[in-house]
Amino acid sequence: MVSFYFAYGSNMNPARMSERGMQFDAVQGGRLEGFRLVFDKASKAHPDIGHANLTYDPAAAAEGVVYRLTSASEITRMDPYENAPVNYSREVVTVAGVHCWTYFANPAVRFAGLKPSRSYLNHLLAGREYLTPEYYRMLCAVECVEGR
């Protein structure tokens, strides 16, 4: 049973995870090889705003936060927040040899040219202590839609 969750988007913020009622007992940084972070998942409330997603890129790696869940069934608490399986599909990936759940945006909600809101990106930046300095700088440089 998979008892880990790899967060690469707004759930990199441990406070957000706690607010959502997720039960975890350990947190660490992680790197998913072969994928690149993009913001091509349209926001439900603001379709011109992009939320985090991963796209296959053999030359890239996406960093994020790995949560050790207190039980294998704990991940189902996240499904409503990700609107799975409608907006995102939940799949297993391997991060540093550990099988983890993560979410991939479904094609019907993906659109090129979207940018995250500043408030959304701030949740990603809250995971700073789990990211390499280079990755954190890359996130800081992401162009955002201000004022939302």
Q: What fraction of the residues are assigned to beta strands by DSSP?
A: 35-45%
Q: Please tell me what the overall shape is.
A: globular
| Chain-averaged pLDDT | 96
Based on the structure given, which CATH architecture is correct?
A: Roll
Number of helices: 4
Low-pLDDT windows of residues: none
Major β-sheet, in short?
Answer: 3 strands, antiparallel
Give, in order, the helices and strands.
EHEEHEEHH
| N- to C-terminal distance | 39 Å
**In angstroms, what is the radius of gyration?**
14 Å
CATH classification, class level: Alpha Beta
Q: Assembly state here?
A: single chain
CATH fold call: Hypothetical upf0131 protein ytfp
How many discrete structural domains?
1
Q: What is the structural class? A: alpha+beta
| Total strands | 5
CATH superfamily: Gamma-glutamyl cyclotransferase-like
How do the strands line up in the largest sheet?
1-3-2
Fraction of residues in helix: 10-25%
List the topology elements.
Blueprint: E1 4-7, H1 14-19, E2 24-42, E3 50-69, H2 79-82, E4 88-95, E5 98-105, H3 118-125, H4 133-140
Antiparallel strand pairs: 1-3, 2-3, 4-5
Q: Mind explaining what this structure looks like?
A:
The strands form two sheets. A three-stranded antiparallel sheet has the order 1-3-2, with no helix packed on it. Strands 4-5 form a two-stranded antiparallel ribbon. By secondary structure, the chain is of the alpha+beta class. It has four helices and five strands; from the N terminus they run βαββαββαα. It has a single domain, classed as Roll (Hypothetical upf0131 protein ytfp).
